[in-house]
Structures are given as C-alpha cells and as structure tokens.
C-alpha cells in the first residue's frame, strides 16, 4: 500500500499522566469511523487503513492508553476498561462528532460492543471481527492448560518455559514480574504464543520491539485483573447493541474461538447475526478474514450514505 498522508495528527491529554496519539485519514467530511485496535495494547498501524475506503470514510486511528505512540509507553496505572471507554466518549466530544461508526477486532471489538451498548444513540453502525469474550473461560482458553494449549501443546510449553507456576493465575502473575523486569525471554515467549494462535503455521519474527513489550505488559495487566469486569459489562449491555451491528469470526480463530462468542450471543433477546468465515483465523494477515472485513466495512458505508444524503437534502 502506498503511503497515505494523514489529515491531522494530535496528542490528547486525557489526564492521569496519559497522552493519547490520534491520526485522522481519509475524507474530511466523510463518514466518521473510530478504529479500535486490539491487544489490549497493540496500537494502530498504517496497514489498518487498508480496511477502509478513504474516499468515503474519515478514519480515526487512536492509540489507547500506553499503546502504540501514546505516552508513556506501556503505562499500567489508570489503564483499565472504564478508562478506555471514557476516552472513547471524550474523543467524540473533543472532535464534535454527534454520531459515528466503530470498527475493530479482538479486544477492540470487546471495547466497541460495550461502548455500543452503553451509548447506542451515538453509533451509526459498528463492525467487529475476532471478538474477544473476556470471561473466565476466555482467559483460561488463552492461558490455561485445557484450551488452546491442547491444540498447540509444544507452543504452549514454550509459553510456560520462561516463568514458574502451577496454574493459570500463578503463570500470569509470574509473567507480570518478568515483563516489568524487561526479561527478553518472557517478552519473546508471550508474543510468540499470541502470534502462533493468531495466524498459525506462519514464519514468526526472530526479535521483538519496544512496542511488543508494551503490548505484552498491557495484555498481561488486563488478564491478571480479569479484564476489569469487561465480561460483566458485555452481558449487561448486549441487548442494547445497535441493530446495525456486524460480527465476523473465523472458524479457526484460536485466540477467540467462535463457541465462546456464540454462547454470549445466545443470551440476547434479539440476536445479532454472526458471520462465520470458513477457514478464517484471528489475524487479518489471513486473506479470508481481511477480505470479509473489508466487504463488511464497505457494506456499512453503503447502508449509511443514503440516510446521510436524505438528511442533507431535506
């Protein structure tokens, strides 16, 4: 993808010692869409723009607290679900946007669905993929010995090797100490396990960056704190999701297996349609998932633009 120049770059002071990095791209008067990155802590990347038609959308790439180019990198204090949700609404006020779209994957989808349930009147439409369900079962699938570990036993042993612990909780707490001490083996093992699950059977990088360490720190921080009751918020708000909600999940998503999302959706009074992508993985490096997400985001614009045209001509 050729380099695209941003409309603007801003630093947003949200208090608590956090500065958030915001880039805006696309059409200045286009459909506003906030991209919610996953992790938590992975940050936004230029490659995320490939999901959007920049002739139709005004794309907001916001690095969440401690993530990406936000500062301080990897800061864990005042970094929880309620802070991230507050930042989303604060951003909308700062930019003077009455209603917008949201799109994102993994933990970004988790955040977006909670926000959409809390503030449905602010959401034109939303599209999420690889939805992470932050329940006890969701955490155990990732870090316990009876979930993804059963499918990738050798890789799971590699994840356990840098730390000592007899169960999921002890391992996560041991990782918290190792990551804060900047132990390279721990950072590498944490990132390798996640990437193995996200896009299996691909060549993994030999080294890991400062951004990778920050992401690992924040992911571990959220996991150690059971995602700050995000699952309780998801369940409490799932019947308030806007009807214009699209969900896509890969059939072979080993980070966020479809059965966990299906169990959550079964609790809805008016279920939202879930599109299962045949053979799809968690990562959008998977062409099947990327193509499905691009099509869904384009469809979101198709559905919105006629109503915007009607309002402006009345």
From TrEMBL:
Identify the domain of life. Answer: Bacteria
Q: What is its EC number?
A: 3.4.11.5
Catalytic activity line of the entry? Release of N-terminal proline from a peptide
Q: Which GO terms describe its molecular function?
A: hydrolase activity
What are the alphabetically sorted keywords of the record? Aminopeptidase, Cytoplasm, Hydrolase, Protease
| Entry-linked InterPro entries | AB_hydrolase_1, AB_hydrolase_fold, Peptidase_S33, Pro_iminopeptidase
Q: One Pfam match, by short name?
A: Abhydrolase_1
Q: Which Gene3D superfamilies match?
A: alpha/beta hydrolase (3.40.50.1820)
Please state what class of enzyme this protein is: hydrolase
Per the record, the major location class is: cytoplasm
Location(s), subcellular:
Cytoplasm
Segments forming domain AB hydrolase-1: 32-284
User: Member of which family?
Assistant: Belongs to the peptidase S33 family.
Its recorded name reads: Proline iminopeptidase
Query: Lineage of the source organism?
Result: Bacteria, Pseudomonadati, Pseudomonadota, Gammaproteobacteria, Alteromonadales
